[in-house]
Write a structure and sequence with these properties.
This protein has 23 helices and 27 strands. Strands 11-16-15-14-12-13 form a six-stranded mixed sheet, sandwiched between helices. Strands 19-27-26-21-22 form a five-stranded mixed sheet. α2 crosses α15 and α18 crosses α23. Bound molecules: beta-D-glucopyranose.
Length: 760
């Protein structure tokens, strides 16, 4: 009888989805349950409320509007308040002046470093170096927690295949496998092995889900795709973050299957909780609940109830939970239990952070003086930045020899405010290293560096304004364009080599920064053309937060080094690579198209029923374009080095694989050039016959290796049936028997090939 009862309870819990709501920590459960017994309904709703910090200034912590709310128990956390003393003072209000003394969460968008800024995430992902990426998140957590922050809204893991979308800069590119490895590295970097330590912070994986699939690359736009595609091509990085123990999840602004993410019960409860076993809490994106009124789902009361019922626990900024849920409860539109569960999750997060034990754990003023923007952190930022750069082309111009005269020209050359890129809210841009400063330092006294701006960012003043918001000014030069250009040509005339620092400004990507034209702005192109006409060797140092269309540049400029936005130490790091002190080894995590018309373009596409025969770029009645080949300009995984690497042939330990067994694919890679270098050896698979169509190639492994000049290493990959699994039409994750192709190479296009069979 007893057993039947237990099963019945388990069954009911499973059906209601409550299984995922029970924690594994009885001490915490007791603590939170006892606390909740003392709480009024309004206090419980207060825990679900996450206002922005607004304009609290130091000394005003207890007198601002927010302070009154905190005293009344109407706030669960605050975000984007900066400065340890201010945060400590606000925490004091919560723990001394509110009835139940519940401490607050302090969140911030610590996206790619805190004050020591690392490359933008798209750049970081191009390093393909998981240790460095983990370390960058670790340092970000140490600095942020030393300044009062205990929660970051990162990692952003939205897969995107559309460089028109401005937020492509904030993610890890187009690939679910690489994206998943990075998601895991970031979460472990932020959270460490124990959230209650004073230098680890809660991570928040975002934006769940599919935010990167906005139609036409227009931010906040609709997304719509099959579940098959969601599971196989977009979901894995979110799931990887959950598997790595991420403490919180942020909803996305967009709709999924006609329901905005913040009201999407299938996403927030069925997928996240029931299928993936997520045990933390869900916060909305900024006013995402309120925005569901504009989506067309009803008034604030209605959409707030929908969000709670879907499985959202915290309401960012909009206060819909705070102001309408009591009414909805009275009217039977939400249940007491739904509110209890949400409140419990928030209190659990605070418990795990150790805030109930010591609410000032993250507000040690001493730490803030010694652990932020340290020389050691800046050194790692410089190394990391250099690893993120991608050498796109090099006709023997790079590296530049010391001695002689360099003309550094371009609107991004002396632009320290722009080096940290988008979402660098804690940066002190005064301390960032511009390319001009970095080049002068690294060049040494034997090399002369001359500088001229050459052109503004763009002829369009309004576009420049929009692209240089948030203190990222490029100090527009008001002189006529021909005067600015002439000055640059004079400088170029005195040089042995020209370094053209061109591209986008920091805020030309990021939130609400989508573009339909993804080329270098025309005015800068004209400058580049004029510089090329001098006949001197030209290196294009490209600043960008998205894959750009660079067909003309690729055809005409002898060397192109893509440096993204490298962070606080960008200028030094770019100079390190230009002079060859560091050999570039970054590889693209997103395909660069030939032109915007090819977008979305990505390497792991399907074959279609009418693929173009190999070697052709057009054939009538095949899947192609009349005016441009299907090839990307630079494929996924692409990036050159100052040395060259030769790949041997693939050796397979076996040509057949069974469930539970493994096979090893090995290849010998030789550094065939005259410089030491690093190479990212990439493994791809293709499932030739499936119950549903499968991509032409999928990344399944990679290793970043160092090779001395002339050295060879054998790289081995172990393959098991786990690597062959995908979601079938019933959304079952399974490996199907049949023939597979295996590719290993230096990028997704240039690969060696082998075959094997899988039989289960
Ligand atoms: C962004 C989020 C961010 C939040 C808080 C939103 O506009 O979409 O990525 O975490 O603001 O600043």
């Amino acid at each position: 009888m007893k057993i039947v009862k237990v099963y019945l309870v388990l069954f009911l819990l499973a059906v209601t989805g409550a299984v995922a709501q029970t924690s594994k920590d009885p001490k915490m459960d007791r603590f939170v349950t006892d606390l909740m017994k003392k709480m009024t309904l309004q206090e419980k709703l207060g825990q679900l409320n996450l206002p922005g910090a607004g304009d609290i200034t130091t000394g005003q912590a207890s007198s601002s509007d927010i302070a009154q709310k905190i005293k009344d128990g109407k706030v669960g956390g605050l975000f984007n308040i900066k400065g340890v003393e201010k945060i400590r003072a606000v925490q004091k209000v919560a723990v001394e002046n509110s009835r139940l003394k519940i401490p607050l969460l302090f969140g911030m968008d610590v996206i790619h470093g805190y004050q020591t800024v690392f490359p933008i995430p798209l750049g970081l992902s191009s390093s393909w170096d998981m240790d460095l990426i983990r370390q960058s998140a670790r340092i970000a957590a140490i600095e942020a927690s030393a300044d009062g922050i205990n929660w970051t809204f990162s990692p952003m893991v939205d897969i995107s295949r559309d460089p028109r979308w401005g937020r492509v800069s904030e993610g890890s590119g187009e690939d679910p496998y690489l994206g998943s490895q990075i998601a895991k590295a970031m979460v472990t970097g932020y959270q460490g092995d124990d959230l209650s330590k004073n230098n680890t912070i809660m991570a928040c994986v975002k934006h769940f889900a599919l935010y990167g699939a906005a139609e036409a690359g227009r931010d906040y736009n609709t997304t719509d795709m099959s579940r098959l595609r969601m599971y196989n091509e977009f979901f894995s990085p979110y799931k990887a973050a959950i598997d790595a123990g991420v403490a919180s999840v942020m909803t996305s602004f967009n709709e999924v299957e006609g329901v905005p993410a913040s009201a999407n019960k299938w996403l927030m409860t069925d997928v996240l909780r029931k299928q993936w076993g997520f045990g933390g809490f869900v916060v909305t994106d900024y006013t995402a609940i309120n925005e569901m009124t504009d989506h067309g789902l009803g008034d604030l009361q209605t959409v707030s109830a929908l969000a709670l019922k879907a499985g959202v626990e915290m309401d960012m900024v909009g206060e819909g939970f705070l102001t309408t849920l009591e009414k909805s409860l009275k009217e039977g539109k939400v249940t007491q239990q739904q509110i209890e569960i949400a409140c419990k999750k928030i209190l659990e997060a605070k418990y795990k952070l150790g805030l109930f034990e010591d609410p000032y754990r993250y507000t040690d003023v001493q730490r803030s003086k010694t652990e932020i923007f340290t020389d050691a952190n800046r050194k790692i930022a410089r190394q990391t930045a250099a690893q993120s750069f991608v050498l796109l082309k090099n006709n023997n111009v790079l590296p530049i020899k010391r001695g002689g005269t360099i003309a550094l020209i371009g609107p991004l050359a002396d632009a320290k405010e722009n080096m940290t890129g988008t979402w660098s809210v804690a940066a002190d841009n005064d301390k960032s290293i511009a390319l001009l400063a970095g080049l002068k330092t690294v060049a040494g006294s034997q090399t002369k560096v001359l500088y001229a701006k050459g052109s503004n960012l763009t002829a369009d003043t309004l576009l420049e304004e929009r692209g240089t918001m948030f203190g990222k000014s490029l100090k527009r030069d008001r002189r006529p364009a021909d005067v600015i250009l002439k000055e640059a040509l004079d400088v170029a005339g005195k040089s042995d080599v020209i370094v053209a620092a061109l591209g986008e400004s920091a805020e030309m990507t990021g939130e609400s920064s989508s573009r339909t034209d993804i080329e270098i702005p025309e005015l800068q192109k004209q400058l580049l053309q004029a510089l090329l006409k001098t006949g001197k060797p030209v290196v294009l140092v490209l600043f960008t937060g998205r894959p750009l269309a660079l067909k003309w540049e690729d055809e005409n400029v002898p060397a192109i080094l893509n440096v993204w936005f490298g962070g606080s130490e960008a200028g030094h790091a770019v100079a390190d690579v230009l002079f060859g002190d560091v050999n570039p080894s970054g590889k693209l995590s997103a395909t660069f198209p030939q032109n915007v018309g090819q977008v979305p373009i990505f390497y792991n596409h399907k074959n279609t029923g009418r693929p173009l025969p190999e070697g052709k770029w057009f054939q009538k009645f095949r899947s192609n374009y009349l005016d441009v080949s299907n090839d990307p300009l630079y494929p996924f995984g692409y990036g050159l080095s100052y040395t060259t690497f030769k790949y041997g042939d693939i050796k397979l330990s076996n040509t057949s694989l069974k469930t539970g067994e493994s096979l090893t694919a090995s290849i010998t890679v030789t550094n065939s050039g005259s410089r030491d270098g690093k190479e990212v050896v990439q493994l791809y698979l293709r499932d030739l016959v499936g119950s549903v169509t499968r991509p032409v190639k999928e990344l399944k492994g990679f290793q970043k290796i160092s090779l001395k000049a002339g050295e060879s290493k054998t790289v081995s990959f172990k393959i098991t049936d786990e690597d062959l699994k995908f979601y079938n039409a019933d959304l079952k994750f399974t490996a199907e028997p049949g023939d597979f192709k295996l590719f290993i190479g230096t990028n997704s296009r240039d690969v060696k090939e082998a075959s094997f069979k899988f039989a289960n």
